[in-house]
Design goal:
There is one protein chain. The protein is of the alpha/beta class and about 300 residues long. It folds into 3 domains: about 80 residues, Orthogonal Bundle (Arc Repressor Mutant, subunit A); about 100 residues, D-Maltodextrin-Binding Protein, domain 2 (3-Layer(aba) Sandwich); about 100 residues, 3-Layer(aba) Sandwich (D-Maltodextrin-Binding Protein, domain 2), CATH 3.40.190. Helices cover about 40% and strands about 25% of the residues. It is built from 11 helices and 13 strands. The strands form 3 sheets. Strands 3, 4, 5, 6, 7, 10, 11, 12 and 13 form a 9-stranded mixed sheet that branches. Strands 1-2 form a two-stranded antiparallel ribbon. Helix 1 crosses helix 2, helix 1 crosses helix 4 and helix 2 packs across helix 3. The two termini are about 65 Å apart.
Amino acid sequence: MDRFEEMRAFAAVVDAGSFVRAADALHVSKTAVSRLVGDLEARLGVRLLHRTTRRLSLTVEGEVFHARCKELLAGVEEAEAEATARADDAIGLLRLNVPVSFGLLHLAPLWPAFLQLHPGITMEVTLSDRIVDLVDEGYDLAVRIARLPASSLVSRKLASTRLVLCASPEYLRRHGTPANPAEIARHAVFTYTLLSTGEQWSFEGPEGPVSVKVTPRMRSNSGDTCCAAALQHQGIVLQPSFMVAGHLRSGALVEVLPQYRSIELGVYAVYASRKHVTPKVRVLIDFLVEAFRIRAWGG
């Protein structure tokens, strides 16, 4: 039998003055309390209580043991109270995994404000486009940009972004503007190697879905590298609106074939379980939801 339960039953009997009242206080049967105290005495090899039909009293050994029990039980209660208090506070280390480009462009500017709101939190932010295992690698939360598949993880959608086909006006002046998706295959293109559709670029056009197989001039696992090539008038890219929106607004890039829209992706906060979400994770999710309520990029 659990030593803690034996000690708790013994202390309750002494405090209540009877087995019956102790049983009521512990919400168990009198038989259970008697058995716990009996097991305790048997394990210790000493009598702790003098029992008569009228009253209970402590033996000398019982007095010493009762005092120590009260100290230990009080310590357990204090530890539980401290743990509960900490569970209600947003404190501790937050380990995050976020995509590189999105993390630099749209998350890095948010972290100072978040830390100022929650001085008890420290953060470890890892930027990587690799899909990490949150549980095995010890991350509290990840931000992912995807058409999120079903999984054991829990997600909260923060925003949407779409892939935009674009190039610089200078490149299009030199090489011509594609009239339809099939003509993209004849142009220099720069592809992001982690794109879920690979080098098969898909669009929804006026007459329905259409796709084109491209042969890249260069492949890269960095969307910024692809965008840099487009900004230097080297070719056409298919990149998310959260990356190219500023360049489109400035005119450095223009959308190609705007009547053909490519896939839309969600921006998600992903965490391991809906149960027992710690306050530090909960306040971060709420913060991100509010921060992206108005997006910094177009649809």
